[in-house]
C-alpha cells in the first residue's frame, strides 16, 4: 500500500533529509504535499522533482514568485501560514512530517492530530508548548505520534525491549555542543559563527544555537515527558560527545538498552516512516573496529544553566514551558541577528520565567497568548536594558 506523505517545512535541514529518505524508499512512499517559508527557489525545485498535489508557501509575499518559478508545473499552490493547517487536515495524507522550526508549527500539528494519521514529529517546540493538548488530541482521534528527534527515536526503539512499568530511567544523551569544554569567561565572548559550528550534527541555525546553550536538551527533556508519558524525575541527561549512542533506557533489573548509529537524521526520519518495520536505508553503518572509544561525562550545570531550568519548567508545567520556549525563540533570533550576546539568551529566559504567573489547563488561545506575552517581554527587557545603557 502506498503511504502518502506531507512534509511541513520541506526546505529545512530535516525536510531536505526527509525527501532524500523518501526518494530512496521508492514508490511505496509518495510525497503529496510540501510547505516552505521563504526559500522559493528550493521549494520550486522540490516541487518539480516530487510533483506534490499541494504546495504551501507560508510567507504569502512569496506566492507570486513561486507561481512564476513553477510556471504551471507541480500542484495547487496554497499561500500563508494557514496553508500548513489546510495540508495537515487533508484526508488524503497518511503521514505528516512536521519539520518546521519553532512554535509556528503548533496549529498545523494540532490539526493533523485530529485525524487518524501518523505524525512524524521533528518540530519539538509544539510538544514542549502544548504537550498535554497535543497528546490528548491524538489519543482521542486515533492519531499516532512518532518521534523523529534522534534521542526520542532512540528511546522509542529502546522502550520496545520491555514494558512501560519496567522502566527505571531514561538517559538522554547530548553531544555537549561546541562549548562543552568552555569556561565561563570564554562563554562570555562567544560569536554567532562559533555558536553555529556544531561538532557532530549539521542542522538549522535555531536548533544549532539551542545545542550550544543546551536549551535543545532542556526542550528535549520536556519533549520526552510528553512523548513517553513519563515523570521528569525519571529522566537524566548525560554528555556523550561522539553522538553515537542517541539515548538509553534503563529497566528495573539494571539492564540498559542503547540505540546506536552514526549521527545522521536520515535514520530516525526513516524509522518514523517505516515503523513498525525496518528497511534498508541511506544512512551509513557503524564500523566498530574503526570507531575508537565512546565517552561520557556529566554536564556542567553551572555553565549550562538552561538544563536545570528545563527540569524546573517541566515540573512547573502549565504555561511555564510556553514561556520558556517563546522567550528562547525570541532571544535566539536576537542573538543570530547580532544584537545580543550569547549569554544573554538564558538570562532573558530566566527573566521571563521570574515575572510570569503560571497558568494551568490552557486552551490553544491561552497558549498562544502566553507565547506572545513572553516574546513581548524579551523585547521589553532589551529596551529597558538599552535605556539604562
Ligand atoms: P531549518 O531552519 O533548517 O528549517 C526550518 C523549516 O521551517 C524550513 O523549511 C522553513 O521554511 C520553515 N519555516 C521557518 N519559519 C517558518 C514559519 N514562520 N512558518 C512556517 N514555516 C517556517 O530547521 P531544522 O534544523 O530542519 O529543524 C526543524 C525542526 O526539527 C526544529 O523544531 C528542530 O528542533 C527539529 N530537529 C531538527 C534536527 C536537525 O537535525 N536539523 C534534529 C532534531 C530535531
Ligand atoms: Mg535531538
Please name the defining characteristics of this protein.
17 helices, about 400 residues, binds nicotinamide-adenine-dinucleotide, 7-stranded parallel sheet, alpha/beta, about 15% strand, single chain, 4-stranded mixed sheet, about 45% helix, binds magnesium ion
Strand and helix layout:
Elements: E1 3-8, H1 13-25, E2 29-36, H2 40-50, E3 54-57, H3 63-70, E4 76-79, H4 82-89, E5 95-98, H5 106-112, E6 118-121, H6 124-141, E7 144-147, H7 150-159, E8 167-174, H8 184-188, H9 192-195, H10 205-213, H11 215-227, E9 235-239, E10 245-251, E11 256-260, H12 266-274, H13 288-291, H14 305-316, H15 320-336, H16 344-354, H17 364-388
Parallel strand pairs: 1-2, 1-5, 2-3, 3-4, 5-6, 6-7, 8-9
Antiparallel strand pairs: 8-10, 10-11
Helix pairs in contact: 1-12, 2-3, 4-5, 5-6, 6-11, 6-15, 10-15, 11-14, 15-16, 15-17, 16-17
The structure holds nicotinamide-adenine-dinucleotide (NAD) and magnesium ion.
Structural class: alpha/beta
Query: What is the gyration radius calculated from CA atoms?
Result: 20 Å
The oligomeric state of the chains shown is: single chain
The percentage helix is 40-55%
Shape: globular
Assess the beta-strand content as a share of residues: 15-25%
Q: Main beta sheet, described?
A: 7 strands, parallel
Number of strands: 11
Provide the succession of SSEs: EHEHEHEHEHEHEHEHHHHEEEHHHHHH
Q: Which regions are unreliable across 5 or more consecutive residues at pLDDT < 50?
A: none
Average pLDDT level: 97
| Ligand identities | nicotinamide-adenine-dinucleotide, magnesium ion
Number of helical segments with 4 or more residues? 17
What is the terminal separation in angstroms?
A: 64 Å
Read across the widest sheet, the strand sequence of neighbours is 4-3-2-1-5-6-7
Amino acid at each position: 500500500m502506498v503511504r502518502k506523505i506531507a512534509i511541513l517545512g520541506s526546505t529545512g535541514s530535516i525536510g531536505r533529509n526527509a525527501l532524500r529518505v523518501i526518494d530512496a524508499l521508492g514508490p511505496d512512499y509518495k510525497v503529496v504535499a510540501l510547505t516552505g517559508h521563504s526559500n522559493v527557489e528550493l521549494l520550486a525545485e522540490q516541487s518539480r522533482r516530487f510533483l506534490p498535489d499541494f504546495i504551501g508557501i507560508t510567507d504569502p509575499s512569496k506566492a507570486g514568485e513561486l507561481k512564476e518559478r513553477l510556471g504551471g508545473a507541480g500542484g495547487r499552490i496554497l499561500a500563508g501560514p494557514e496553508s500548513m493547517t489546510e495540508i495537515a487536515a487533508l484526508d488524503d495524507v497518511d503521514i505528516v512530517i512536521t519539520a518546521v522550526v519553532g512554535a509556528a508549527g503548533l496549529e498545523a500539528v494540532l490539526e493533523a492530530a485530529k485525524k487518524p494519521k501518523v505524525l512524524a514529529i521533528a518540530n519539538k517546540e509544539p510538544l514542549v508548548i502544548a504537550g498535554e493538548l497535543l497528546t490528548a488530541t491524538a489519543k482521542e482521534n486515533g492519531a499516532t505520534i512518532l518521534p523523529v528527534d534522534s534521542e526520542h527515536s532512540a528511546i522509542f526503539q529502546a522502550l520496545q525491549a520491555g514494558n512501560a512499568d519496567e522502566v527505571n530511567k531514561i538517559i538522554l544523551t547530548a553531544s555537549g555542543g561546541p562549548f562543552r569544554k568552555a569556561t565561563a569567561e570564554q562563554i562570555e565572548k562567544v560569536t554567532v559563527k562559533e555558536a553555529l559550528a556544531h561538532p557532530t550534527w549539521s542542522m538549522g541555525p535555531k536548533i544549532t544555537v539551542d545545542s550550544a546553550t543546551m536549551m535543545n536538551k532542556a526542550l528535549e527533556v520536556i519533549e520526552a515527558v510528553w512523548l513517553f508519558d513519563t515523570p521528569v524525575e525519571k529522566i537524566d541527561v548525560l554528555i556523550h560527545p561522539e553522538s553515537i549512542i542517541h539515548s538509553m533506557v534503563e529497566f528495573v533489573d539494571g539492564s540498559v538498552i542503547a540505540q546506536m548509529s552514526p549521527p545522521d537524521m536520515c535514520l530516525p526520519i526513516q524509522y518514523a516512516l517505516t515503523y513498525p518495520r525496518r528497511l534498508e536505508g541511506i544512512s551509513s553503518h557503524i564500523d566498530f573496529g574503526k570507531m575508537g572509544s565512546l565517552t561520557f561525562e556529566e554536564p556542567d550545570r553551572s555553565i549550562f544553566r538552561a538544563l536545570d531550568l528545563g527540569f524546573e519548567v517541566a515540573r512547573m508545567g502549565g504555561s511555564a514551558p510556553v514561556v520558556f520556549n517563546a522567550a528562547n525563540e525570541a532571544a535566539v533570533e536576537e542573538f543570530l541577528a547580532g544584537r545580543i550576546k550569547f549569554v544573554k539568551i538564558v538570562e532573558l529566559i530566566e527573566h521571563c520565567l521570574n515575572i510570569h504567573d503560571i497558568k494551568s489547563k490552557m486552551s490553544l488561545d491561552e497558549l498562544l497568548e502566553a507565547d506572545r506575552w513572553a516574546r513581548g517581554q524579551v523585547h521589553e527587557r532589551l529596551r529597558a536594558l538599552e535605556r539604562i545603557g
